[in-house]
Every structure is written in C-alpha cells, then in structure tokens.
Inverse folding.
C-alpha cells in the first residue's frame, strides 16, 4: 500500500533533522558563543532563544499555507530562507547582529516543523501513524545529536564556520524536498463534523500540556552542556558529546513510544505516564546535585532522556484530533504554543539558576510535568481513522 510513503517519511524526516540542527543544536556551542561574543549566561540564553522566538511568529502561518498549497513549496522555500539568514549570521561580529540573524533564520526554518508532520500524516494509516510520526519526531533529537557531535568541532575554529555548515545542510534538505516530496496519492481523510483546530478545546488542552512538557525539555537540554561544564567540570566537547548521547537515546525512545501507541491504539494514555516519570526524574535530578558525579550524572542524563521522549505522542494526537486536511494548522498551532514556552525557558532558565541554584531550578521543573498530567486527564483519545 502506497510504498512511496517511506520516501515521503525519509524526506520529511531529513527536512526536520536539518531544521533541528539549527533550533535545537545551538546549545551544543553555547560555551563558544559565550566566549566569542563575551556574553553572560543570561545573554547566551537570549541568543539561543532568538531562533525559537522567530519560529513562534510563523509556525501557524506555515501550517495554514501547507494546508492550502501543500508541503513541498512551504518546506523548500522556508529552508532556503533559513540558510541565507545563517550565512548572514556568519558574517556578523556583534551580539545584536547575531541575535537578529538567528531570529530571521527562525522565521523561515519553522516551515519544516509545521509542514513535515502534515506530509507524514497524509501518507500513513492510523495503525502505522504513531510509528511514522515517532520516526519523524525522532529527527529532532537526532539533528540535535548530530549538531552536538559536529558543531563544537567547527566552532572551535570560530562560530562562523559552524553557522555556514548549518546553512549548507539546510540548502541540501531544501533541494531534496523540492525533488522528492509530493502530495499523497489519495486525499487525507475527511474532516467533516470536526471543529476547526483553533476552536477545538481538546487541541487547546493538548497544546497547553505540550507547552508545559517542553518547558522541562528545553530547560534540561538547553542548559545541560553548561551545567556539566560549569558545575561538573567536564570539557565543552565532552559535555556536548553527552548531550548528543541523550538526544540519540531519546530519539529511540520516541520511536518506541510511537510503536507502543499504535499497538495499544492510544496516544494520550502513554503521554500521561511520561508526565509522572518526568516529574519524578526532575525531583531526583535536583536531589542529586549535592551528590558525587558518579550518582548525579546518571540521574541527570536519565531525566534528560525522558524529557526528550514524549513529542511524537503529542503531535500524533494533535494531527489525529484535527483530521488530515487540517493537520497542518493543528500542528502549526501546537508548535506555536510550545515555541512560546521553549523560547521563554531558554531566555529565563539561565537567569533563574543565576539568581538561585541549579538545585532549585531542577526541582521547579517537576511542577510543569505534574500540571501537564492534570491537563491530559481532560483530553480524550483521538478517533482511529
């Protein structure tokens, strides 16, 4: 049945991987950004969050454009624009210029987030959709892991080199998208009788729960390298390698949770369980900050893996609640709400830790995980269509 769906999945995953190398890969070169530009911890967070801020403003628009015009022109044009912005960023030598260029890159790279999930949704039936979207969502930690392994090596010779390399990768993904991505052979399932995504209370609650979970995710992943480097004495490349390992393991867990959700015919149920595990992990990580590294590092890294694991379930549920014809808008909205919180987390968590401690910061992350679990109690399972 529709064997070309695996090509679609590969192209969509590649586009999302390239995008993730930008908006989730920057923390891997956080120490280099800070040293090259003479930034404080808080300013470093602002620089890294500028991409996410740009994405937030355009995610919903890119999703609506994908519903109207298809995924191929949306993703290809967006990735080209992001690549050009990174080229400009490589030429700047000031903090303000860097933030501006990264912001513009975020405006364009959001196209992959909003549209690549819609492409997968339209080609896969419900019994394989959790696995397929799990693979697509695994592209984000994989992209971050690849960035974590490669960007610090390039940034050691100047951050401009790493930004140029990112731009080249985005251009390659744009070419692949333009050449291979196409609309499904059969239209997406009918969405008659479904409320519009922005008027659906189920999608709103799901987006709010995802936003709470993404706050935990970005606090862990956005500052893991800095925590390991500053507090645990690891070298910058060593800390970045551990971040890459967390991302790769988390990618595998995303795929596994997607397959589990297919076999159980559930999306929201497994997500509720992840919330409780994540809350417990945040509390354990906070307690472990006063313990030797042999205890603290495994606890911190295990919680970081859980923080990476849940995204595929949220996006699969959102797409199925909305229906295939409107899934671009639903995914764009979901991404927008989550991006607002992730950008605020990157910008604010560093200031919070500076004003208090790593222990307090990690302990506080248990609260949004528990709040997400409470919200998900009011979200039903999507219909299997």
């Amino acid at each position: 049945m529709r064997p070309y769906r695996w090509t679609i999945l590969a192209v969509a995953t590649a586009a999302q991987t390239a995008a993730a190398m930008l908006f989730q890969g920057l923390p891997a070169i956080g120490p280099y950004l800070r040293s090259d530009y003479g930034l404080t911890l808080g300013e470093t967070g602002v620089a890294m969050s500028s991409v996410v801020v740009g994405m937030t403003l355009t995610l919903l628009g890119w999703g609506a454009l994908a519903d109207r015009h298809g995924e191929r022109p949306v993703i290809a044009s967006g990735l080209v624009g992001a690549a050009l912005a990174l080229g400009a960023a490589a030429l700047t030598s000031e903090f303000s210029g860097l933030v501006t260029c990264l912001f513009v890159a975020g405006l364009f790279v959001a196209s992959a987030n909003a549209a690549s999930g819609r492409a997968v949704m339209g080609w896969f039936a419900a019994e394989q959709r959790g696995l397929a979207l799990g693979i697509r969502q695994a592209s984000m930690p994989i992209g971050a892991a690849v960035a974590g392994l490669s960007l610090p090596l390039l940034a050691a010779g100047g951050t401009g080199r790493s930004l140029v390399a990112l731009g080249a990768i985005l251009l390659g993904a744009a070419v692949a998208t333009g050449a291979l991505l196409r609309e499904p052979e059969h239209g997406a399932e009918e969405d008659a009788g479904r409320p519009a995504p922005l008027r659906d209370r189920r999608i709103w609650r799901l987006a709010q729960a995802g936003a709470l979970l993404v706050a935990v995710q970005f606090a862990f992943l956005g500052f893991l390298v800095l925590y390991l480097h500053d507090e645990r004495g690891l070298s910058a490349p060593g800390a970045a390698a551990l971040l890459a390992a967390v991302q790769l393991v988390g990618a595998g867990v995303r795929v596994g949770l997607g397959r589990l959700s297919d076999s159980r015919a559930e999306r929201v149920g497994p997500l509720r369980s992840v919330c409780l595990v994540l809350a417990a992990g945040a509390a354990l990580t906070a307690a472990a900050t006063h313990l030797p590294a042999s205890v603290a590092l495994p606890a911190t890294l295990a919680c970081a893996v859980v923080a990476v694991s849940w995204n595929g379930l949220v996006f699969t549920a959102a797409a199925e609640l909305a229906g295939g014809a409107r899934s671009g808008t639903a995914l764009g909205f979901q991404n927008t709400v989550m991006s607002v919180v992730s950008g605020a987390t990157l910008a604010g968590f560093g200031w919070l830790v500076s004003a208090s401690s790593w222990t307090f910061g990690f302990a506080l992350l248990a609260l949004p995980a528990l709040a997400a679990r409470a919200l998900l109690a009011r979200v039903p399972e999507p219909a299997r269509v």
Summary: The longest helix spans residues 126-155. The chain has one domain: 5-376.
